[in-house]
Amino acid sequence: MNIAKAGYSKLTPVQKYSIPIILAGRDLMACAQTGSGKTAAFLLPIVAHMMRNGVTASSFKEQQEPECIIVAPTRELINQIFLEARKFVYGTCIRPVVIYGGTQTGHSIRQVMQGCNILCATPGRLLDIIGREKIGLCNVKYLVLDEADRMLDMGFGLDMKQLISYPSMPPKDKRQTLMFSATFPDEVQRLAGEFLKTDYLFIVVGHVGGACSDVQKPKLVVYGWWFPPPREQLLSVNHDLLTCIFNNTADFLRYPFNHCYLCRDREQREREVALQDFRSGKFPVLVATSVAARGLDIENVQHVINFDLPSTIEEYVHRIGRTGRCGNTGKAVSFFDNSSDGHLAQSLVKAQQEVPVWLEETAFGFQGERVFRSVNTQKVSLEMYSKSWLSELFLSIEVCLAVYLQSTATETVSSVTVSLILALHLQSAQYF
């Protein structure tokens, strides 16, 4: 009943394969593209198990002993998981609780002490409350790491090892450990062995580290240092549609249109207000650092713009995954500078279904016959803007004209692309 009320009508591929494995009691590492329903894939079987086996939480205990601990890297993501859990357990005796940094520790303790079966937490606040002996680990049956690659890398890896090293934490053969993410680098897969049973299962929907299957490259526009700053091109975006703009730093957060911004430096209340304003459409543009790159599920996001490409391909995959979720369409645009982003070239070629020829040449250093792929506007489009060599100016004119000629009456070339085609011709005229 709660599943139907939450709006679920059929299983996604990752849910189809993950739920039976979890119900069978097996440890699991699951890799599936962004927006594929991974949260429900682990919450539903856990709640089903708890309903079948019963729960023991009581607000009269001095120390709460949750049956399930779910850990995620960001406050916004863990709160989103908590809200989903609350939907699934509505009307039952199972009580989910969420705790994260940026709020008063006393408030977190009071929430936990009212009873806790499913504890959703960020690593720092979780270890703090455990250290205050308000949470006991002896009854943990399920340990879930969402965005597991981020949880096991240098950012949170030591915190996770500290968590499983507590004497009261059941050993891995006495608990069920689940890991979910859209990206699983080889190094993280090796680290996962410390947390999972030796007979754990690894399922992959799509391919490991691949971009969302809806993200393709139907158009190409090459961007160069000879053009005005990319900031001006952002003004061409339809700001009536929800748009996420990502920057690597928090010093590029002022635009001449209505927007809100999200970064680690903001107070938690400000971050929550910014997200709410963006979800509601009060501010249709969200400018953010990578704090918003993972897990956030916001309906009707039509554009993602990477003004700065991230340092890793995994972060790139997560960023563009804020659009094109659950079968919906959207558009992802990235600005590429070979001097600073060249190390990503090969990874971008491997992560995407279709890539521009100049990116292949940058990645592998070959010159081959240029083949123009057909335009498919039914998918999420990815436009890669290169801010590098002058020679790419001529290639960009060639590619843009090819895209224009391939367009049909029902496939409209975006105003951004058309304006840049004209800009390319004007700029080329200035050099001769």
UniProtKB/TrEMBL annotation:
<dbReference type="GO" id="GO:0030317">
    <property type="term" value="P:flagellated sperm motility"/>
</dbReference>
<keyword id="KW-0378">Hydrolase</keyword>
<keyword id="KW-0547">Nucleotide-binding</keyword>
<comment type="similarity">
    <text>Belongs to the DEAD box helicase family.</text>
</comment>
<dbReference type="GO" id="GO:0005737">
    <property type="term" value="C:cytoplasm"/>
</dbReference>
<feature type="domain" description="Helicase ATP-binding">
    <location>
        <begin position="19"/>
        <end position="202"/>
    </location>
</feature>
<dbReference type="InterPro" id="IPR000629">
    <property type="entry name" value="RNA-helicase_DEAD-box_CS"/>
</dbReference>
<dbReference type="GO" id="GO:0003676">
    <property type="term" value="F:nucleic acid binding"/>
</dbReference>
<dbReference type="Pfam" id="PF00271">
    <property type="entry name" value="Helicase_C"/>
</dbReference>
<dbReference type="Pfam" id="PF00270">
    <property type="entry name" value="DEAD"/>
</dbReference>
<dbReference type="InterPro" id="IPR011545">
    <property type="entry name" value="DEAD/DEAH_box_helicase_dom"/>
</dbReference>
<dbReference type="GO" id="GO:0016787">
    <property type="term" value="F:hydrolase activity"/>
</dbReference>
<keyword id="KW-0347">Helicase</keyword>
<protein>
    <recommendedName>
        <fullName>RNA helicase</fullName>
        <ecNumber>3.6.4.13</ecNumber>
    </recommendedName>
</protein>
<dbReference type="InterPro" id="IPR001650">
    <property type="entry name" value="Helicase_C-like"/>
</dbReference>
<keyword id="KW-0067">ATP-binding</keyword>
<dbReference type="InterPro" id="IPR014001">
    <property type="entry name" value="Helicase_ATP-bd"/>
</dbReference>
<dbReference type="GO" id="GO:0003724">
    <property type="term" value="F:RNA helicase activity"/>
</dbReference>
<feature type="domain" description="Helicase C-terminal">
    <location>
        <begin position="230"/>
        <end position="363"/>
    </location>
</feature>
<dbReference type="GO" id="GO:0005524">
    <property type="term" value="F:ATP binding"/>
</dbReference>
<dbReference type="InterPro" id="IPR027417">
    <property type="entry name" value="P-loop_NTPase"/>
</dbReference>
